Amino acid sequence: MTSLVELRVLEGPNLYFPRAAVKLTLDISGLAAASEETAGRFARRIGLANARPGAPETGFRQRFALRAVGHLVRAVADEAGTTGLGVRVRPTSDRHRVVVAYPWKHRGRAEAMGRAVADVLDAVPSADVEAAVGEAAALVAGAEPGDEPRTIKPAIPVVAVTGTNGKTTTSRMVAHIGRADGRVVGWSNTDGIYIDGEMVEAGDYSGPSGAGRILAHEQVELAVTETARGGILLKGIGLTRNDVSVVTNVTADHLGLQGIDTVDQLAEVKAVVPRITRRKGWSVLNGDDPRVFAMRHVIKARPWVFTRDVESPAIREVLGEGGRATTVIDGWVSVLTPDADPDPLVELVDVPMTLAGLSRFNVENTLAAASAALAIGIDRSVVVEGLRSFLPDAEHNPGRMNFFTVGEVSVVVDLAHNEAGLEALLEIMNGVRRPDARLLLGLGVVGDRTDELIEKLGEIAARDSDVIAIGHKEKYLRGRTTEELETLMRAGAERVGVTGVPAYPTEVAVLSALVGQALPGDVVGLMCHAERQEVYDWLAEHGGTPDSSADLADKVRVSSA
């Protein structure tokens, strides 16, 4: 059995370093169980002459192991001819596993060092632990250097958007505004690669490959990249820097994957994006999210906050530092700069994405997009026109808050993939239903969420809607069974007294069932992840028509009445 659990090469800025790095996941069982005498000899060999390893399998030994592994990497590097190597060591949820990261300039030698470090840990229980360190250093010194990092240095302006919810909508809005400015915009996201508004390749390109594809396109004048947590953790960011970064929010999502178990850890991952924003650029941060606002302490760029609350302390603090803020004043999207009167850009009622200000999340996305567009240098008048012309429909923002009318029933199609997203969907559904009408929800989840999150989604859905039904996502079971997911969602619904929740095999099937039982004025919501085009096709076949901005405004007025 080897101590090397995983060796992962990160090609660009990452959770550990602002440049390419190697991430090792190491099993330290041998070191944890070694005798105090053996652990002491190991410590002295790697330069920890006064270390006290503690008894085997104790908390003291675990703390020693974290320190010792970092010193081991440096010792091997020093003896192989690389001095002053930066090393980061982190514990994991498994007390016998640690993560070690170090930057690299030559891939072959960096990978050789990862394997050599594991060889030393394998040798710890033996009598040859001292010799093992020297042998490891010799292997590294003799390894072929290999390729250098291929991290891209952008030659055009880059807006990088990250966050848990809203990053796709926000990046779409920024790209739309950029095109309104006459620029050829390259945009990468979870749907694919877009050049000047046309998809040129479908697929999830929210990682480094997406950024690389659009920057390689000769005609692109502005790059807008959606940056997801998975790409940062698994590959690193493919760019050396960005000019403007946006962090929309950080909420519980994808926890329990790649060593990220808490929302605080997730926030640290998202913070990689603003950390590499150039010093003369802008980091656009959500002032209403404490974890996002705290990122201003790790950035080099100038801070620009957005908040729905004009009295937010975040505004006072950032303006005091010479930054900027975008907020809502008397129903107007307004920009604040130090020692100047507010600049009212556009009324929320004239921004279709906000549904006359009804959609709290899309108000925030609007504030973020306006801030980013202004920060990248787009003229104020163009930003206003872009906000007015970006629509919540399948053309401009597919899969996010798309409204349709089928007979006298409203249908809302949205990704709604986590708690915050589902609550936002239900908020919108409430905002357009007629008095005394019902909310009918097609509930669905992807399999890589925790049991707790899946149950919570069932609870929220049952608590806040009148009728719920499950629609499965066969493409996204991710190791789960449909029966297992049904059990978890139903358990959540039962916590608020809802039992007997029916299940359907597809998103289209659950939509058909809910629309079939809806009454005039009811609103059907669908958490749509796997069959977006099929859902659009079904709606068209059954007389569904996309709602225009005027249609939505009418529905909001009727609901308010």
From TrEMBL:
Entry superkingdom: Bacteria
Domain (Mur ligase C-terminal) ranges: 399-526
Record GO terms (molecular function): acid-amino acid ligase activity; ATP binding
UniProt cross-references to Gene3D superfamilies, sorted A to Z: Mur ligase, C-terminal domain (3.90.190.20), Mur-like, catalytic domain (3.40.1190.10)
All copies of domain Mur ligase central, residue ranges: 161-372
PANTHER family: CYANOPHYCIN SYNTHETASE, MUR LIGASE FAMILY MEMBER
Protein name (database record): Cyanophycin synthetase
Source organism per UniProt: Nocardioides lianchengensis
